[in-house]
Amino acid sequence: MLKESFVTKHYKLAKERYAAVGVDTDKVLQDLQNIKISLHCWQGDDVAGFMHPGQALTGGISVSGNYPGKATNPTELRADLDEALSLIPGKHKVNLHAIYTDTDEKVDLDTIEPRHFSSWVQWAKEHGLGLDFNPTLFSHPMSESGFTLSSPDKTVRDFWIEHCKRSRKISEYFGKELGQQCVNNIWIPDGMKDNPIDKMAPRERLKEALDEILSEKIDQKYTIEAVEGKLFGTGVESYTVGSHEFYMLYALTHDLLWTIDAGHFHPTEDVSDKFSAYLLFGKGLMLHVSRPVRWDSDHVVIMNDELIRITRTLVRENLLDKVNIGLDFFDATINRIAAWVIGARNTLKAIMIGMLAPIDELKKAELEFDFTKRLALTEELKSFPFGAVWDYFCLKNNVPVGEDWLEEVRKYENRILPERQVDQTAH
């Protein structure tokens, strides 16, 4: 365990080093304190939810691994989130899917109401958290055909339209109760495994469905819609109805957020390059920070080049106020709480690294075609003592410094998770 005096001493040295190139680390930490990460609830229970126990995952979603002790009800999931959030510096948000209702009533996706999430709101109030939301258009009998909002079956389509309308009301409820805007993110799994004959008709149906869903105006003070595209998923390799282009254009023409999931693009694409191109025209972005491995596989976020490019772009181009940052991954091969902590701390740390640079000076050099200085300085910054600044940020937020957080997770695991393992075996 690192002593406070050690952390403080090294921060002072790092502060001097950064000051030499014109960076105020105190100001960086002040700005970092205001960053909110939306922690995705579905990492805690492998995207199962609590509405339909035992329902198989569909929609191209797959979770590998069987690490013991996953959450089996809302109380357990909130306890796990409490543990994770206690190890992540700052005040953040939690992102819910509609299947994470907390009610004894028999309810389906087309009958959910705000009251079915009242316990989540009470919990968020007690912890000073915001909530985001997602309608759940997968893992349900009405999605078995592989089509939801774009289905040729009007009965199926109407079911999902009603679900999405109700999701908007739940998002509005979150925003009103918590005093923080709730992002309501719409993603659908619709597509085809083999080559379709007609690509236009499903998109026409999707557009009409979205138009109907959004026909009622809701004050954006409380909630704002986001629409999320996808490259492909298992079972829809040949055709995705809600492609990136479809949703980008729909968001542009309907005053919505466009959701960019870092795992939903081709491995050779630079996701960060899309931000400035879109935000010259678009309202804003919802960013899902994920890590693809070969394809859309939603691995735990690590400190790699892709993450650094994403966060540096957000900082250098002054986009943080236009981008909502959330996480989206699920890994059941490791401790699920640790996965949250690793992903969130890495994302925050990467944002901090982006801030720890003389950005105005670098922009000036670039404007003057001094590419030598630009390259030299950006390369030198790679070995600056950002770790000491991060440790101090954790210290000031009363969360474990360095790897000490893992010891806390192990204690929780040894105290709580074995009981769940017994319960799950009994069932």
UniProtKB/TrEMBL annotation:
It is found in: Cytoplasm. It comes from the Bacteria. InterPro entries: L-rhamnose_isomerase, Rhamnose_isomerase, Xyl_isomerase-like_sf. Its EC number is 5.3.1.14. GO terms for biological process: L-lyxose metabolic process; rhamnose catabolic process. SUPFAM superfamilies: Xylose isomerase-like. Binds 1 Mn(2+) ion per subunit. Its cofactor is Mn(2+). One of its GO terms (cellular component) is cytoplasm. Catalyzes the interconversion of L-rhamnose and L-rhamnulose. This is L-rhamnose isomerase. It comes from Weizmannia acidilactici. The gene is rhaA.
